[in-house]
Structure formats: structure tokens, C-alpha cells
Amino acid sequence: MNNGKSGNEPNNKLHKDNGLSGSGQGGKGQIGSGLSGSGQGGKGQIGSGMSGSGQGGNGQNGSGMRGNGQSGNGQNGSGYGSSQLSRSGQSGNNQNGSGDGGSVQGSKSAQPSSDQSLEQKQQDDGKQQQQGGKEQQQQGAKKQQGAQGTDQNSHHSDYEQNAEVAIKEIPYVSSTEVAPRLDWMRKQFDRCSDIVFHNMSLHAGIGNKDYEAMLIYTNGMFDIDQAEHYVLQPLLQRTFYSRQELSQYLYTLNRLPITEVRWVKEGAEARKGILQGHGIVFFEGDERFLILPFSKFEKRGIEEAPNETVIRGPREAFVEDLQTNLSLVRRRIKSHHLKMEQFELGTYTSTRVIVSYLEGVCKPSLIDEVKRRIHYIQSDGVLAATQIEEDLADNPTSLFTQMQHTERPDVVSAALLEGRIAIMMDNSPDAMLAPATLFMKMQSLEDYNQNFIATSFIRIIRFLFMLISLMLPSFYIAVTTFHAEILPFNLLISVASAREIVPFPALLEAFIMEISFEALREASVRIPKYIGQTVSIIGALIIGTAAVEAGIVSSAMVIIVSVTGVASFIIPGFDLSLSLRLLRFPLMLLAGFLGIFGIACGVILIYTHLLNLKSMGVPFLSPWTPSSFRSMEDIFIRSPWWKLKNTPTFALSGKQEQEQHSDNRGWAKQEEEQT
Amino acid sequence: MRKVRLLLLAILFSFLLTGCWSSEELNDVAFVSLIIVDKTDDGVEVTLGIPLTNNLAVGDAAGGQSGNQKFGYFSRTAETIEDALQKIQGDLSRKANFGQNRNIIVGRAYAEEGIMPLIEYSANNPYMRLNTNLFMVDGYAKDEVSKATVVSERFIVTILNKYVEQWTSLQTTVRDFLISKTSGGDAVIPIIKFSQISEGAMVGTASTVGTGGSAIFREGKLVEPILTPEQTTAAKSIRNQLRQYYFSTLSPVDEKPVGFYSTIVDVKTSITKKDNKYTMIVKSVSEVVILANNSEIDFSRYDHSRKMEQRIEEYIDKLTSDTMKVIQQTGADVFHFDRYFCIKYPREWKKVEGDWREFYRDQLEVDIQSVVNLRRKGSTVRSFNKHFSNYEKESGSEQ
Fold it and tell me: Is the pLDDT of residue A165 over 50?
């Protein structure tokens, strides 16, 4: 019964895998098994399936729900307590290995009371034993034997035993009756107090027994008003003289006055629908569930972007609801070529992730690459965008993030038009753009809403201050400690007299000031609004003035640290400014040890790293290197709109490059020709 | 994992360099700004002028009061310069650093004995600049300099630097002494004069700093005569260092003084052979502005302007050639004419190079040709005084 496949075959659609036949996949040689379950191996995701199945893997839970996962590294099976029981699985005692019900005592008492436990495990749900599975589990378990197993206590409470019973996955048996299905649903949502079970009976004509029907939904996520009006009312007011009529009414003829309904046969899909905020209706006589798509839940309204403010330009920002975000983007790009592909990641969270791109403009190889990388993501839960980003990044250990974050739909639209890919997630107001280069992170959308000459000037200042934020303290340290000859005489006297009172060497003084500045900055993020101003005044006074007067730091140092701090806020991309802030410290150390030579070494190392960095295959420093003059116009200066070509070169295939022509100022030429 | 370990190791090694290399705290270093070298009976006396930054500390409530000294002079005498420096270092609490030193002052006694050891020290020393300016004090340098009151600038060194920067004084650097082998050690060094002020001064000792004249050096030794300030101006102009100059001459019309302000634009030196004599030709083009006109000359008339220009040219030529004669008589090739000779007439140079200074003194002609352009004639083309004031009412006679 077990198809144990070895090899790392990822399986995204875990939740759908309720086949009776076990589709066990072995990840790293674990037991797949599982009756229904899809035991997975690999990183030990849900072992799932009913019988748990041992997963092994990196010791994650064996199972999501029940199952006991044994993990190769001796972690607990799942949090439900099955662990206790299952734990033993590691050693040869397979009792738990499997996990059915758990009444297994995880004993490490090595007796293969497997059979015994097996019988215990038999419960109404777990009909099939996996004896075969058992054996495989044994084998697998033996492999894991080496693993440090957690100690299996032979004593466990009744509570855990019950929990063990409850965790196992009950197989869904399709039927046309309401009762078994309802029973299954109730068992699934046992102790979930916000799931509502609504019983109703439909007219069947005089003299006939009424048809039972059930409406199940999640309170708080379901629009019950619409359901009452458009589902319950028509259903309850009609008389259905036969079951076929009802089936036809609902399913074949689609007579309910609502759109977007669908029907499913599997209990697990219906369950998923409930959890997503849709309601399900099922009734006697038909084995299908009808899923009603009225999900309505409280969400934040569209507000101004807190971190990316502009003076002139739209102020909308993304919210947590994915549908709203998608509509914000759609409003700006009204083309059928804008594709939004959906993935669901995370076994517990089932987070919807949308990969959107503009077909025809975006390179197909880029799209394929992104989709390929997303397929490998298997986590328990995907909550933050950073989880996806780290999984997709070319070089996750680099200090520089390779994707750009934004919370503004106009930035996303502009990026899509450039041929980039936007990745949006449920419950996350940040969209990620790939590929991202360093120069894209240095651009602010405000640039495009202003005069191009002014913008070019501001961009040049931005780059200058980027260098200042990285190198100014190190430069000061290097020059005053190693190369005092290059300072003009008056400046040198001023600096030297300022530093007379300071008891620390220059490097230490710089470190003290920089670290207090970082502490101040971090603290100000968490300060409640009402005392924020007071604290900033205190910070300025204490760290600035009083420290100088007390003779702890010199005034020149305070100036340098403030200029550096201001410079680091000029960078539009927050993650980029964070990286540079961090890099300042090693550079200061190098400057203190080796002078300007040290700074040169550090800068060369950083630059080399940046040169090798790739974001989705695109070099991180393009178009600076490999140089392409046509794209340079958008980095240091901003050429006016009529001069900018449409797409940056890296996003184009060869054929598309030749097609770039458009001249928005053609009317001027026309006038010239006329005169 | 391996890479991380290697990286850690590399970082750890870098910590071994703490305190090594050439790292010096700013406040452990004394930046020598001025070197004064003089000769006493016991040998060479070296004085280092160092700004005292501890008294200049900002941020402290009490700092920079008149009681505190801002610039300190540390002086020692020894046989050689190096010995003296070692003794001075023994006095200093910080390590002496010559990286900021731009000025050297020599006293008369040392100049007469010969300053070549000092030049050698400055040139060969890798920690000292080659473009250090040289000045001379006609007297006992240490006393005069250390007791001077510095009024217009923060330090005396700033005054000296600014003299050179603003082309107020002649600039001679160590490099100028060594620029040519044959005429090495010949140069003209500006003199710093300290004049007594009679009011607001400490009793009898205070003096202010000024420029005045220059001294001619031949083979590192001072030779007479000392050039006057006007002759120094001429010397500056030959070296193309004259930028602005106030002077007055008599007008050709009625021999009354007219005041001018001239900026020399260009001075070109070249060598030719005329009538079998080697001649240095010094051509200068000046632009002159009229400041005051006390004569009847009317500059709206071209012939008057032209005559005035000729007068000025004569004046300049005379001054310069007189100065040149004085310098030439000493046999000190302070303008390094041998370089021009050597480049243009290499074969003849081989014959002459052995006794170049005699050749220079006796056989080299120097021809000064100046061209003066009277650019601006002032606010009016005629004398304000004569034309508009009530004094001596005349209606501008034509002559």
C-alpha cells in the first residue's frame, strides 16, 4: 500500500492528497507510507495522512495532524502529543512509527509490539493497517536509529492519548447522505467554535420527507447576509419534488442567483473552502458540495504608504488583502497580457502567492525561472514575504537583498512595464519585484513625477550621499590617525584642538558614537508616538551637546556621525540603506587598522561581491557593468520621458531590442518639417 | 563552513595589527609648522615652531585666553641639525611630525656661514616637503620671530603661508636651490622684517611681521648686497611671480606724478645669440590701470596715452635692468639661466659649463623688454583734481 518513492519529489498539493492508496514519498529515504497520507520526506513536512508515516527528514513534524512523525533527528513528531507516543519510532520500535491512532506507547521498550499496537490503533477510521507500511517504517526507523532520539517516556497521560486519537486524519467517504458527511465535518472542526453548522430542510412537496441540507461556514469570514438572500431564500422558498430536480437546480442548471459558485466532491476541498471564508452547502441526494464564494472579512482600508512617501504622486499603498492589492495593480495596467499566476504555499497557512508579469514584455526565461524556484518551497507556514525572498534569492547569505520591496502599486506597475516580475502575497502589504539591481533601489518614484533636470541633480546627490554614508567615518579615522599630512593646516588645527579633550583614540570614539546612534535609531522605531518627540530631543541633547561638553566625544565626531546618519536616510530603498549601515562598521575597523589602504581593501571587497551578485540571473550592478550606455541614462540622471526607451536592456530579448522606436515628441519634428 | 572558518581566521589575523602600522593618534603628534635655523657660538641652533593644540581646545569653557600661549617654540643647539633635532625631541611630549611644515627661516649668521647642510637635510629627508618655502631674517632669527606679535592671523605660520599664496613675497623653495647642478645653491630668498610698533605693545619687545627686501645666495652663502624692496619686485617679475604692483611715475607732459596699478600678465624668458653675444631676453607684458592723475595729461588722446606707456616701460626696464646688474655682479645665477643655455646651445654649453658663474657674470647679457598696455584710464580720462575741483580753475589746457 505504500508507494514509497524515494527521491526528492516535491509535492505541493499536499492537502489534496488524500488518496486512499498511500502516496508516500520518501524524501530523504524516509518512509512514506501512510494510508492516505502523503507522507513526505524531504523536510519532513506533514507526514500527514492518516497513518502517519514516518517522515523523517530534518526532524520536522512527522505529521501535521496526526501521524507521528518521527523525525530523523529525534524531534518530536507533531505537536499534538503524538510525539510522545510516536517518538519511539526512531528506534526500531515501530510502534509509533506509524501513527495511527496513537495509542502507541512510545516505548522504547523495544519490543516489537508492533502488532499489538497496530491493533490498538485500529479504530474506525483507520481501517487499513499498514502493515506493509509498518515494515517499511521499521526499515526507515532503523535508518533513523542513529539519530538522537528524544527519550520516549513510557508514561503518558490520558489527555495525550485522546489527543492522539483526535489528531489522526479521518478519511472522507463520499456519500449522498448528509449524516456521515456532517459527522465527518464535525469531527474535523471539533472544538473550532467559530465554524457554524446550519441545518435546514428543503421542501419536497406534500407528503414527502424534506430534504436535509447543511450550510457550513466560518463566522467572521463569510458574508452571511448575501448567503441568506441569495442562497437560503431561493432554496427555502421552492419546493423540490425530486432529488434530481434539486440537483439539477443547483448544479446542472445553475439556477441560484449567484455567480462564481463551484462544486467539489472531496471533503478536504470543501474543508479548505470553509477555511478560506467560503461557505459550503450540501444536501441529501447528491454527494457534491457547493461552495459559495461570499467571503467578507474586515480588512484595512487603503491608506497612505507609511514608508515611501512622495510629495507629488499617488498615495495609495497595498493592504493585507490580496484581492485588493491585485485590483490596485489591475487598475493601472489594463491589459489582458498582465498575467497573475497563483500558488499556494505553506501547509498550514495555504498562503496564496501571486506571480504577476506582463506577457510579451517580460522575458519568458525569467518567468520560468521564478516559477521553478517557487515550486521548491515547502514550509509549514509562509507568513512573511521574506521567507519567499530568501528561498528565491540567488545568494541568500549576501548582505544585499536581491529583490526590491515596495508597498506602492504605481511602483509595481512601473516595474511590470519594465519587464520585471512582481510577487504578491496574502496578508502581506509588501510586493517583491525581481530582478532588482542596485540602481533600481536607489530610485524613488518621485523622480518620475518631477522635472527631469531637478531630478537628475537630486539623483547625483543621492549617490554622493550613499558614498558618504558608507565611508565618511572611516575616512575621518583613517586621515586623522594615519595621514594627517593631507589635511590643510587650519583644518588640522581645528580638528586636533577639538580632539584634545577626548580620552579615547579615534577608532574607539567613532565606534561609541556610531553605536549610540544606531541604538537611538532602533529605539525610535519602537517609541510610542506621544513620547517620541521628547526622546528625540533628549537624544540630541544628551548624545550631541552634553557629550561634547563633558569631554567624552569631540564635536567633529558628532558632526560626522550626524552627517552620516542623515546620508543613510537619503537612500530610498530601506534594505539597501540597512546594508550600507552595517557595512560601515567593518570599514571603520579596517580604517583604524590600515588607514586609507584598509578602506581601499574593504571597498574592493565590497565591490567584488557586488559584481558577482546576481538577482534572478541579472547582474546586480547592471547597467553600470556590464555596461550598456542606453540604459545608463536612467541611473545618474533622469532623461526626460521622451528620451527614455521603454524597457531596460536586460529585460529584452534580442528581437525586442530592435523594435524599440516610439518617439513621443514626433509632433515637434512635424512642425519643423512644416516650417 | 570552510569558507566561514577561513574568513574568521583572516579577520582574527587582522586584529594582530592593532597598534601597528603607522597609526598615530592626532594628539600624540606635534605638527611642526616652522623651522628656524641659526648659528650661535656653540653650533647650529634649531628652533621648531609648534601650535599648542591643548590650549586651543574648543568645547571647553576656558580656552584660548590671552594668557595661554598658542604657538610654542622649542629650541636647542648642537653641532649638526640632526643632533639638535634629537635634543628637541627630548623636550617634546609628542612625536615631532614634519608633514605639515612649509616654512624654514634662516638667520643672518647661519646664512653667511652657508645653508647647504640645511638644504640637503630638507631635500633628502623623506618626511619633509620639497616645496618648503625659505625666508631669511636679517638678524638673530629666533629672537625676532618668537617675540613678534601676530596680529592679523592666528599663527605666524599662517602669515608666511599667505605671503607666498598671495604672491606678496618672493617664493623660493628648497627645490629652487637644487634645480640646476651648475647653478645649484644660488637663489634669492625673501627677507622677513620685524618692525617695532610704538603703541599697544609690550615693553620694547613686540614687533610686527612684514616683508622687506631679499637676500642673494651664492653657493649657499649669503652675499652682499641685500636687495631693496623695489629690487625685490624686479626680481619677482623676472621670475614671473609679480601679480600686482602699485607705483607711480612722472607724466611725460608736465613731469607730475601719476599713480598706477599694474598686473603683470606674462613674463617669458628666452635666450638668443646676438652679435656673437648670448643674450637672455626677458619679455613682460603688463596691464596697467591708472589710479591717480596729478598732471595735466589727457588720456583720451592717443598720443598722450602712448607716451605714458612708453614712460612706464622705461621705468620698468630701468628698474629691472639695474636689479639685474646688481645680481649679475655677485656672480650668483639666481634665476638659473644656465638651464636655458644648456637646452638651446648644448655644444657651447659643454665648453662653458665648467666656469659658468664667471661666464654669467661677465659675458651674459640680459635684455629686458617690457610692454605696457594702459588698459583703464581711471574713472575719468583727465585729472579729477584739475578738472572738477575748485582748486586752480583751468579749462584743461592742451599740450
Answer: yes
Q: How many helices (DSSP H) and strands (DSSP E) are in chain B? A: 13, 14
Q: Could you give the CA distance from residue B36 to residue B44 in angstroms, rounded to a whole number? A: 10
A485 to chain B, any CB pair closer than 8 A? The answer is yes
Grid cell 589710479 is found at: B291
Query: A213-222, A494-503, B45-54 — which one is most confidently predicted on average?
Result: B45-54
The span from the first CA to the last CA of chain B, in angstroms, equals 101
- Partner residue opposite A493 with nearest CB, options B25, B51, B97: B51
Alpha carbons A395 and A146: distance in angstroms, whole number: 33
User: Using CA atoms, how far apart are residues A280 and A271, in angstroms rounded to an integer?
Assistant: 9
pLDDT tens-place string over residues A531-580: 777 777 777 777 778 888 888 888 888 889 889 988 988 888 888 988 99
pLDDT value, residue B391: 56
Residues of B within 8 A of A549 (CB-CB) are: 59
For residue A619, give every residue at least 6 positions away whose Cβ sits within 8 Å of its Cβ, in sequence order, or none.
Answer: A437, A611, A613, A625, A626
Rounded to an integer, the average pLDDT of B248-270 is 88
What does the alpha-carbon distance between residue B154 and residue B160 come to, in Å, rounded to a whole number?
11
pLDDT digits 0-9 by tens, A86-140: 333 333 333 333 333 333 333 343 344 444 444 444 444 434 444 444 444 444 4
Q: What is the pLDDT of residues A249-262, one digit of tens each?
A: 777 777 777 787 88
Which cell numbers hold the place of A249?
Answer: 437546480
Averaged pLDDT score across all residues of chain B: 86
Q: How far is B115 from chain A (nearest CA, A)?
A: 26
Smallest Cα distance from B1 to chain A, Å: 12
Are A303 and A317 spatial neighbours (Cβ–Cβ below 8 Å)? yes
Taking residues A337-363, what's their average pLDDT?
89
CA dihedral B59, B61, B67, B72 (to 10 degrees): -20
Cell of A494: 581645528
Q: Which residue has the cell 543621492?
A: A462
Q: Which residue has the cell 592671523?
A: B153
Chain B residues with CB-CB distance to A501 below 8 A: 57, 59-60
Q: What is the CA radius of gyration of chain B?
A: 27
Nearest to B27 among A490, A496, A549 (CB): A496
Model confidence band, residue A636 (pLDDT cutoffs 50, 70, 90): low
Q: How far apart are CA A156 and CA A582, in angstroms?
A: 50
Write down the mean pLDDT value for chain A: 73
C-alpha closest to that of A648 among A452, A403, A463, A417: A417
Closest residue by Cα to residue B144 from B220, B73, B86: B73
Q: A-chain residues within 8 Å CB-CB of B17?
A: 593-594
Q: What are the sequence ranges of the domains in chain A?
A: 2-147, 178-292, 322-436, 459-619, 640-674
3-state secondary structure of A178: helix
Q: What is the pLDDT of residues B89-148, one digit of tens each?
A: 999 999 999 999 999 999 999 999 999 999 999 999 999 999 999 999 998 999 888 888
Q: Phi and psi dihedrals of A100, rounded to 5?
A: -85, -130
A501/B59 touch (CB, cutoff 8 Å), yes or no: yes
Whether B161 and A481 lie within 8 Å, measured CB to CB? no
* Closest to A431 in 3D by CA, of A446, A415, A412, A451: A412
Residues of A in contact with B99 (CB under 8 A): 484-485
Residue that is written with C-alpha cell 502567492 in the block: A353
| Phi, psi (degrees; rounded to nearest 5) at B106 | -115, 145
Nearest C-alpha of chain B: how many angstroms from A476? 11
A71 or A550: which leads in pLDDT = A550
Cell numbers found for residue A429 = 502589504
A546–chain B Cβ distance below 8 A for any pair:
no
Q: Is A210 helix (H, G, I), strand (E, B) or coil?
A: coil
Verify cis geometry, omega within 30 degrees of 0, for the bond prior to A623: yes
pTM (whole model) above 0.80? no
